[in-house]
Design brief:
Blueprint (H helix, E strand, L loop, with lengths): L1 H11 L12 E11 L2 H10 L4 E9 L1 H7 L5 E9 L2 E10 L17 E7 L2 H10 L3 E2 L5 E2 L11 E6 L5 E6 L17 E11 L2 H11 L3 E9 L1 H7 L5 E8 L5 E9 L18 E7 L2 H10 L10 E3 L2 E7 L5 E6 L1
Parallel strand pairs: 1-4, 5-9, 10-13, 14-17
Antiparallel strand pairs: 1-14, 2-3, 3-4, 5-10, 6-8, 7-8, 8-9, 11-12, 12-13, 15-16, 16-17
Length: 329
């Protein structure tokens, strides 16, 4: 009984509320990533980035094998909260997956990050330096004012102990969700979005907007020396499109108009590999979502819709290979 309760908590912690409109996806619940050492990662996210651990569990068995598409699985998972948003860290005790490529670049299509909002970029950067994080950008970058939709935003890319890309982000007063501008003594405030590199914005919109029901929340085209240094990609020119559900972090598409040459998501990648990220969305019907995605000839990680505790879930890949877990509300 305790195990069944934990499995249900794993799927629905975070007070997922009903949708206010009749759409398939009602919320983005959390962003997950595979880690090599759960204890080390939990310590990093809680001690350095101010996340709070909500719960942790260990699981194995047929249901998880069919959901994750990994035979003989035994995993440990921790759910962490920052402000009102959540991440989930998963360590595969068995079978171990592959390490991330050492030459991974920000324009490779397996790239994904989460954007953490900070109240003070200078103080955040000094704190990250003090804790010796690995730089992905040479330092914080302020996007130029000529860029109407992104001007004044300050950002910095860095990496966690497994090399996963993270971003700290600070909005000027006229941009971002109003909740990021309230008076506070906290440095790390929450998660604004997760960003994914894609090959074609229209194809991604067909998946996230037309099938899942997320709505376009913003668009911009970013280029110039600040953007190049932020992504650490020379000559970077990006078409950026943000989509959102009624609650939870947004999902931001990063389409590299230049340079060409970003590598595709490895066709043989598995959820136990360290490049694996998994964005969980809550849907009104997992079966309906699965049927719609089959008709669209999408690739499935799960063998089909799986019952985990008292809930149904399925994991699929978007047009570029990013994993989306759909959990029935």
């Amino acid at each position: 009984m305790l195990r069944r309760t934990l499995l249900s908590l794993f799927l629905l912690s975070g007070a997922l509320s009903p949708a206010s409109a009749p759409r398939l996806a009602t919320a983005v619940d959390s962003i997950g990533m595979t880690v090599s050492d759960l204890d080390r990662s939990v310590e990093f996210y809680t001690k350095v980035l101010s996340f709070e651990k909500v719960f942790e569990f260990e699981a194995d068995g047929d249901a998880f094998e069919h959901l994750q598409g990994v035979f003989g699985v035994r995993l440990r998972r921790a759910r962490l909260r920052l402000g009102g948003e959540f991440i989930e860290l998963t360590e595969y005790l068995a079978p171990k997956g592959r390490p991330a490529p050492v030459d991974a670049r920000s324009n490779d299509r397996w790239f994904q990050h989460v954007a953490l909002i900070v109240s003070d970029m200078d103080r955040a950067y000094q704190w990250l330096r003090q804790n010796r994080v690995q730089h992905a950008s040479p330092g914080p970058q302020r996007l130029p004012d000529w860029n109407k939709n992104a001007g004044g935003i300050s950002a910095f890319y860095f990496r966690d102990p497994d090399g996963h890309a993270l971003e700290v982000l600070s909005f000027p007063a006229d941009k971002g969700n109003p909740k990021w501008h309230g008076a506070t003594d906290k440095l790390f405030l929450g998660i604004d979005h997760t960003a994914i590199v894609i090959s074609d914005t229209e194809a991604s919109l067909s998946f996230y907007r037309d099938t899942l029901g997320l709505e376009v929340a913003g668009e911009s085209e970013n280029y110039g020396p600040e953007q190049e240094r932020l992504n650490n990609v020379f000559g970077a020119r990006l078409r950026i499109t943000a989509v959102r559900a009624t609650s939870g972090p947004g999902i931001e598409f990063l389409e590299y108009l230049a340079p060409s040459g970003g590598r595709p998501y490895p066709a043989d990648a598995k959820p136990n590999d360290l490049i694996h990220w998994q964005t969980r969305v809550v849907a009104s019907s997992a079966e309906r979502a699965a049927n719609d995605l089959r008709r669209s000839h999408r690739a499935f990680i799960s063998t089909g819709v799986v019952e985990i505790g008292s809930r149904k879930a399925v994991i699929v890949r978007d047009p570029d290979g990013h994993a989306i877990e759909i959990v029935e509300q």
